[in-house]
Amino acid sequence: xxxxxxxxxxxxxxxxxxxxxxDRAAALRxxxxxxxxxxxxxxxxxGETLAWADAAGGGALAGRAExxxxxxxxxxxxxxxAALRFAExxxxxxxxAADAVQLACAAAADVDLFVTGDDRLSRARVDGIxxxxxxxxxxx
Length: 140
Hints:
The chain is of the alpha/beta class and 140 residues long. It has a single domain, classed as Rossmann fold (3-Layer(aba) Sandwich). A five-stranded parallel sheet has the order 3-2-1-4-5, with helices on both faces. α1 packs across α2 and α3 packs antiparallel against α4.
């Protein structure tokens, strides 16, 4: 069993069921379920997903999106431990604040794999995260 963190984009692809990326997110989630992996995300992902859902389809879609995230993943807070990791991560000027929050929450939870929609993040090295992969490279 692995501890896997998804940033916002894999959830958006899964919830919106958009083409190849939606299929990849669904395949990765099925693979994880088959292995008994634990899925994590952050409160930032929840907020970004709710904002997207509200803009895309209003309150009903936002409610379904919130339920889907809570049913699939443990939602991690940006707490003191994550804040300390955030400060370390932000030493790298190539990593923006939102990405640093996501990485910090994942690192504070000592995840094995961080899955992102942004391939450039896969070059980052963050203590507390064994592997950072784009959705395209993480999906089986």
